[in-house]
Design goal:
Length: 288
C-alpha cells in the first residue's frame, strides 16, 4: 500500500475476533496500514488486502503515527505499550481498544507520556458484527487533540465515536456499559426460566424480545437524563417516568405472581420491583 502524503500511517496490533475485522476496515486507509499479531496466519488476509505484515511490535511502533491495540488483557496491553515506547521514533498515539482495568490507561499515560506516547483508551461496543460492518461504538478517553486526530481512522470501523474525557474515561464508560449488558443477560436467563416453566417456546419469546427492542430501543430508551438524582417535582419528565414506574411495578408484580404459582424463584425481578421507581429518579414519589 502506498501511503498518502500528510495522512498518518496506522498500525494495528492484535488480530483476534474483534481486531481482525476492525483492522480489515482500515486496509484501505490512505496513509497505509501496518499490522502485527503473534500468529502469522492472522496477518495473511490483511497482507493480501494491502496491509504491511510486520515482523514485530517494534516495526509497527517505528513506522506508524497512530497504533491501535486490541489484545487480550491488561498484562498484554502493558507489554505492547512498553515495546512501542522502546521502538517509537517520534510521538505516537496508542489507542487501546481492549477492555482493561479502570486505572490502567491513566497509569500508562503517566508513565509513558514523558516518553512520547499519547495513551488513549478507546474501548468498543458492538461485537464482531459491528466490527465487520463498521458500526462499532467507540468510547474515547484521552486528550482532545488525540481524539480529533484519531476520528477519521476510527470512523473506518465505528459509526459512533464519543469523547468521554481524559485517559481512563473511555474504560470507565465501557465498564458501565458492559455492566448493563451482562446484568441484562442474567435477567434474560431469569425470564427464560419463567417462560419455560409456563410451557412457552423460548425461541418465539426471543424473537418477540428482539423485535420489540428494535422498535423501542430497549433499555437504552429509558436513559434520558444527565443525572441519577431525584427528579424535581416540576421536571417535565416526571409524569412520563411516573407512568413508566406504575406500568413496570404492575408487570413485575404480575411476573412474580406467576413465578410463585409455578415455583420459579425470581430474585432479579424482586430486586427490580423494590428498586424500580428509585432507579427512575422517583424515590420521593407518592405510593398509591
Amino acid at each position: 500500500m502506498t501511503a498518502s502524503a500528510g495522512v498518518a500511517r496506522m498500525g494495528f496490533i492484535g488480530l483476534g475476533q474483534l481486531g481482525q475485522p476492525m483492522a480489515a476496515r482500515l486496509a484501505g486507509w490512505p496513509g497505509g496500514l501496518v499490522v502485527y499479531d503473534m500468529r502469522p496466519e492472522a496477518m495473511g488476509a490483511l497482507a493480501a488486502a494491502g496491509a504491511v505484515a510486520a515482523a514485530g511490535v517494534s516495526v509497527v511502533a517505528a513506522t506508524c503515527r497512530i497504533v491501535c491495540v486490541m489484545v487480550r488483557d491488561d498484562a498484554q496491553v502493558r507489554d505492547v505499550v512498553e515495546q512501542i515506547a522502546a521502538s517509537a521514533r517520534g510521538p505516537v498515539i496508542v489507542a487501546i481498544h481492549s477492555t482493561i482495568g479502570p486505572g490502567t490507561a491513566a497509569a500508562l499515560a503517566a508513565t509513558y507520556g514523558p516518553r512520547g506516547l499519547e495513551i488513549a483508551d478507546a474501548p468498543v461496543s458492538g461485537g464482531f458484527m459491528g466490527a465487520q460492518d463498521g458500526r462499532l461504538a467507540v468510547m474515547f478517553g484521552g486528550s482532545r487533540a488525540a481524539y480529533e486526530e484519531c476520528l477519521e481512522p476510527l470512523r473506518c470501523f465505528a459509526d459512533l465515536i464519543m469523547y468521554m474525557g481524559p485517559a481512563g474515561a473511555g474504560t470507565r464508560a465501557k465498564l458501565a456499559r458492559n455492566l448493563l449488558h451482562f446484568v441484562a443477560f442474567t435477567a434474560a436467563a431469569e425470564s427464560q426460566r419463567l417462560a419455560e416453566a409456563a410451557g412457552l417456546d423460548l425461541r418465539k419469546l426471543a424473537r418477540i424480545v428482539r423485535h420489540s427492542d428494535l422498535v423501542t430501543g430497549g433499555v437504552g430508551s429509558i436513559m434520558l437524563r444527565p443525572t441519577t438524582a431525584e427528579l424535581a417535582a416540576d421536571d417535565p419528565l416526571r409524569p412520563i417516568l411516573e407512568h413508566t414506574a406504575a406500568l413496570g411495578e404492575k408487570d413485575l408484580a404480575l411476573a412474580l405472581e406467576l413465578g410463585a404459582q409455578l415455583g420459579v424463584d425470581l430474585p432479579m425481578a424482586r430486586f427490580a420491583l423494590g428498586n424500580f421507581a428509585a432507579g427512575l429518579g422517583l424515590a420521593e414519589r407518592d405510593s398509591a
